[in-house]
Amino acid sequence: MSEVRTYTGADIQVLEGLDPVRKRPGMYVGGTGKAGLHHLLWEIVDNAVDEATNGYASQIEVTLHEDGQSVTVSDNGRGIPVDTHPSKNISALELIMTTLHAGGKFDQTNYIASGGLHGVGASVVNALSEELTVTVRRDGAVWEQRYARGVPLSTVRKVRENGRGTGTSIHFRPDPDIFESVAFDAEAIGQSLEIKTYLNAALCIVFRNGITGARREYRHEGGISEFLTERVKGLAERSVHEEQFLVRQQGMTDGARVEVALQWTEAPREHVRSFVNGIPTEEGGTHEQGFRDAVRSAVRAYMETHDMLPKNLDISADDIREGLVAILNLFMIEPQFQGQTKEKLNNPSARSVVAGAMRLELERFLNAHPTTGEAIAARVIQSAKARRASRTAARDVRRKTSISHRLNLPGKLADCSSTDPARSELFIVEGDSAGGSAKQGRDRAFQAVLPLRGKVLNAEQHAASKVRENKELSNVVKALGCGMGDEIDLARLRYHKVILLMDADSDGHHIATLLLTFFYRYMRPLITEGFAYIAQPPLYRLDAGKDTWWALDEADKDRILRKIERAAKGRRNVMVQRFKGLGEMMPATLRETTLDPEKRMLLQVCIDDEERLGTERTISDLMGKDASARFRFIMDHAADADALDV
Length: 646
What we know:
- This protein is of the alpha+beta class.
- Among the domains are: 19-218, Heat Shock Protein 90, CATH 3.30.565.10; 223-394, Ribosomal Protein S5, domain 2 (2-Layer Sandwich), CATH 3.30.230.
- Helices cover 37% and strands 19% of the residues.
- The strands form four sheets. Strands 1, 2, 3, 4, 5, 6, 7, 8 and 9 form a nine-stranded mixed sheet that branches.
């Protein structure tokens, strides 16, 4: 019988200052991977953009230094105050940089619209940086303060008299003990900075890439209209109408400002990019709901007025929005974001604000441009007819196959009891040993397991007939139930989460790559519709006393070891166990780390519109028959060979 551990008041920890940020960085920046690392930069950049949005700055300069692991962001705004705070008795600069929920954006007199209302951005960046230096130009002088992991190394000091102009410069280097990698992505930074200049037409952003020596200046006086033009070009789909719809409504309810640009194309689905106070809201929110309300109401009203609605044809909101490409930019005084990463807007009032700004204007636009209105109406009707035909075909397929729902399944498939695809998950694993652990550790109610034998066929190097004959790939297709190639029909897909569960080593990565290549070439809708995932099993287990950590790879293990040693001041013994494969894991361990939806990490496989050409080139080069492209790749990355897990 295991010992029962007492739980008393002495077990309650109180994390003070910036300790909560370092203890749980994911709560503040969304994770310790690439997205979390770059979130640090956007917190600082967005503070500078707020100065520009509110009319206090006109230029921002971002410098990625030669090491690729440190950044400086400078603006010509007012400069962070350096005088002593009246109640805290420390410099306002130090207060902002070392205290959560301290900032000048809670008071609407300083910032009418701001993306950083939580007041934690600068202090979070400081807490998660190995080193950070703030330089402020204001009050006729230059001031400076340096920090290490959120702790001031000095007081705020005047470093120069007669400083010209005003502004703030922040140099920071992310902490390698926190992040899986501290290497910034220069291309992604450049793209995001350019978007910010589309959203702020009067703003100029200079990006200096110290790695390559390149300098780019972003300025887009055409604003979101110019942004929309570039988005439509990037989709490589024909526009249904030439003239854009553009609306700018200033000084609306609660001081909100709405900007919308949209255009219908022949694209098979809608593409809406939304922003609030310059912050990209990747998960949408109430402002996108208002946008969709307005589009649906305006287009339907136009079609009804002009008697364009066909009889016996139901037109849905999805039909109306199919092919729509739009930019929605909302500025408001008090946005309520979901989480510190600000990916979703929650303000209930935003829905009516956006809908009110758009609906009548869009209807007037359609009536004033009859040729455009008729083209959009024809696009909507075409979409509705196609959707009706698809529903009819899917209904016929279900009618024919409902009796044989579980027939002709591969023998090694351990199926789940659920017949609801939206709830069901399929884990594709390598080998019978790993399959045995997964079968014992899964939840049989909704989790199915399909073991594969060895490395599957490289679908990029073989003809379609050879791919169809391959037993392992054929078993995958049979288990999914939706067919492949031109015959694929996602209405018959038996699992809405198809999860590749491979060993966390080079062989496992190779098998996952082979399966992804097959999905990309023969079952691409699995990826485009968001049904494909990659599991993240640990490669190491680390035990120190009663504490246990799981490390995904070598770099993650080293980061955790540094963190443990620093916390224990180098006096703590750590036991490190490396898993040779999933089959070596106890079923309970596999369930805890990789299978349990409440605890696991999954990577969703997706291809951004901007990355379609790059993805095609990568698959063709690295997986195709031509070995010369792979040779060039190997030679270009030979310096990284030591990092391979062989």
